[in-house]
Design brief:
Structural class: alpha+beta
CATH architecture: 3-Layer(aba) Sandwich
Radius of gyration: 16 Å
Helix content: 25-40%
Strand order of the largest sheet: 1-2-3-4-5-7-6
Number of helices: 5
CATH topology: Aminopeptidase
CATH superfamily: Gcn5-related N-acetyltransferase (GNAT)
Number of domains: 1
Length: about 180
C-alpha cells in the first residue's frame, strides 16, 4: 500500500468512493450521490498543506481517503482542531486501509500543530466506531435522533482525541512570550 496527498486529478475518485458510502446508507447523512462540481469548494479547501486529503493506493489505484478539515472555520481559538473524515471503497473495506490512513492522519496532525481531532459519525456506523476506539478517540458528544433517512431515524456521535503536538505547544508558548 502507498499513501500520498491528493491532487485535483484525484477528485473524481474521491467523490466516487464517498458515493459508495452514500449508496450504502449507513456511513454518511448524505442521501443522494454527490458530484465533483457540488463538492468543489470543499475539495479546494483541501489543496493546501494544512488540510490535506490523503489517499491510500493499492497497485496504483486509490482505494480510500482521509481528510483533515477545519472545525468551525474562521474561529481562531479553534485553529488547533481538525475534523477527520475517512472513506474506503466498498470492495476494499476490512483490509486495513482505514487503519493505515488513521495512523497517517494522526501523525500528520501532531506534526503540523493540531491539538485535537474530531470525528462526527452516524451512531450506527459500527466499523467507524471501532476504528476510532482503537485509536483512543473517546465519545465527547451525542446528538440523538437528528438524522432522518425517511424510513429510519438515527443519531450522530462526536468522537474526539487530544493530540500531543510539540509544534502546537511551542507555537502557543511563543505566542505567550
Amino acid at each position: 500500500m502507498e499513501l500520498r496527498t491528493a491532487t485535483a486529478a484525484d477528485w473524481p475518485r474521491i467523490i466516487e468512493i464517498y458515493n459508495h458510502a452514500v449508496s450504502d446508507g449507513r456511513f454518511t447523512a448524505d442521501i443522494e450521490p454527490l458530484t465533483v462540481e457540488a463538492r468543489r469548494d470543499w475539495l479546494m479547501q483541501h489543496t493546501n498543506k494544512r488540510y490535506p486529503i490523503r489517499l491510500a493506493l493499492e497497485d496504483g489505484i486509490t482505494v480510500g481517503w482521509c481528510s483533515l478539515s477545519p472545525y468551525r472555520p474562521g474561529r481562531k481559538a479553534l485553529a488547533g482542531v481538525a475534523e477527520i473524515s475517512y472513506y474506503i471503497a466498498r470492495e476494499h473495506r476490512g483490509k486495513g486501509f482505514a487503519n493505515q490512513l488513521m495512523a497517517d492522519a494522526i501523525t500528520y496532525a501532531e506534526t503540523n500543530g493540531f491539538t485535537h481531532l474530531l470525528a462526527i459519525l452516524l451512531d450506527r456506523n459500527i466499523a467507524s466506531l471501532n476504528l476510532l476506539k482503537k485509536y483512543q478517540f473517546r465519545q465527547w458528544g451525542q446528538l440523538p435522533g437528528i438524522v432522518n433517512f425517511g424510513s429510519e431515524i438515527c443519531g450522530q456521535y462526536i468522537y474526539g482525541k487530544k493530540l500531543f503536538s510539540s509544534t502546537g505547544i511551542s507555537s502557543r508558548i511563543t505566542a505567550i512570550l
